[in-house]
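User: I'm writing a short report section on ligand binding and want a predicted complex to refer to. Could you take this sequence and 3-phosphoglyceric acid and write out the structure as tokens? A short remark afterwards would be nice.
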Amino acid sequence: MKVLVATEKPFAAVAVEGIRQVVETAGYELKLLEKYTDKADLLAVVSDVDGLIIRSDKVDAEVLDAAKNLKVVVRAGAGYDNIDLAAATSHGVVAENTPGQNSNAVAELVFGMTIMAARNMYAGTSGFELKGKHIGIQAFGQVGRNVARIAKGFGMEVRALDPFCPDSAMADAGVTPVHNVEELYADNLFVSIHIPATKDTIGSIGYDLITRMPKGGVLINTARKEVIDETGLAKALEDRTDLKYVADVKPGNAEELEQRFAGRVFFTPKKMGAQTAEANINAGIAAANQVVAFLRDGVDRFRVN
Ligand code: 3PG
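Assistant: Sure. The structure tokens for the complex follow:
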């Protein structure tokens, strides 16, 4: 059996070594395709593998057609919007993710960017502190819960919106539940987005919500660029000169926003929320264990299709 790690944005070397150990201990062969720039490279190398480990790499019908022996694909991470789930199912391929394994890394970056915005992008002008401020967390999943934990360490008041999470789970974490999205945006100086990109959420955060934010509001997006209505965002930043937007998921109109709203927007050059040695090791090795568990024993606990 062969297992391919295909990562356009590679894992730390130590994580790759951990993956290798898991795969080889199971008696399987590890293939590695890193930093590829051409989809043709993936199509060529995927042709004879039984298991596939990816990050944000796209696995669509063309990749699945090329992967004649593929039985399982594991997204080493949380979001699996990069996998065509219907195509995976019709190709008889099990798709999985590794929930929670990289969530602390993403949550820590939320605060890297939150402080940057609160201190005026480190321009040297007088900013403000996080202590005592309100933060609204949009979706109380694994990343959202870590954001809440860290926010409390800063002495922030934490609110969260998540229709899939019982109020009691938020209350147990010392977080105040919010039941509508308008309220979340209107009542919190900081709003941190942690929703997946789905047909219901794509383009769902636009002018109306963003302009509800209080004066000086900061919107932080470490989730997916697709959940933002980018035209609405640009108009909100134009009409509300007090607002800031910081994102680990560069918008399609990043250049325009950087030019028009210099000092009020910041985008990481490449999504790096999960780019820590710890997150790479946790998610990469979890993915390797899941691939082996499926190929050897048919275990599919984290199946998403
Ligand atoms: C995730 O969904 O797990 C994060 O967005 C991390 O993505 P990455 O593995 O491409 O860094």
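A remark for your report: DSSP finds twelve helices and twelve strands in the chain. Residues 24 and 268 are 35 Å apart (CA to CA).
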